[in-house]
Amino acid sequence: MQDVLGLAAQNLLSPIVLFFVLGVAAALARSDLTIPEAVAKGISLYLLFAIGFKGGVAVSNNGIDLTLGMTLMSGVILSFILPFIAFALLRWISQLSRTDAAAVAGHYGSISIVTFVAATSVLQSSGIMAEGYMVAVAAAMEAPAIFSALLLVSSGGKGRMDGALIREILLNGSIVLLVGSFFIGWITGADGMVKIEALIVSPFQGVLCLFLLDMGLVAGRGLKQGRAVLRPGPLAFGVLMPVIGSCLGLAFALVIGLSLGGAVLLMVLAASASYIAVPAAMRVALPEANPSVYLTLSLGVTFPFNLTLGIPLYLAIASAVHGG
What we know:
By secondary structure, this protein is mainly alpha-helical. Helices cover 80% and strands 0% of the residues.
């Protein structure tokens, strides 16, 4: 427990978390601090580009093996099954409708790329290496959860799943940029990294701090607007579901044989909740679902939990079970 608290304290005092806290505090205090939408979108594009490219270079350096294929398949399976677990838990401990519960569940099968990056930073600061292809697993886990959410409501005749929606999901801008950058990094390898590392290595942490500041502002506003849905049941779900997902992620990682760092990252991916790709899809596929419910839980509850306590907890658990 002391190790977990120590890691949590270390993470809480990191610049990325403190800038997130600053954003939340500014929003709750009704400050006029804002990040222009165009700037925020540019920062998002930069992060996706840098993450994808560095992951591709890592795969180029390490090569492709059976473990990579098994890890990708595990990510897809986790993304598909986690919404069913989330849905059952929500229906048990909350009064949410079937549609709202399914929409929320879809978010918890998909991933938060910013939580993934934060976990990567924690591992690097702790001197723990991880498989470079984990970013490809993150990309693979974006879409399956959306299909699971639609399956959960299909028995009631609600939701829409057609060719246009599938195309919209697969060609979502964040997925296209992340996957595309990954393949470019894979193709160009170390030579490509040398040419652009001044852009995607040194400035990365500073840009991430700005992004977390913006996320804090968004989360703070969501907390103010979503107070009506922050009842004990949904709140408990927002903390319990990440822990459940992380345990499943660890089980898959142990079966596959991932390193300690890879196991932690798979735990984080399984524990995180989407607040970009899935909300966009839910607005199209389940327009009757309440956005204040799924955005408040994913961005206002689970995201801060993972940043502050979740990542240190997952690292401590993985270290104890994995053995290094």
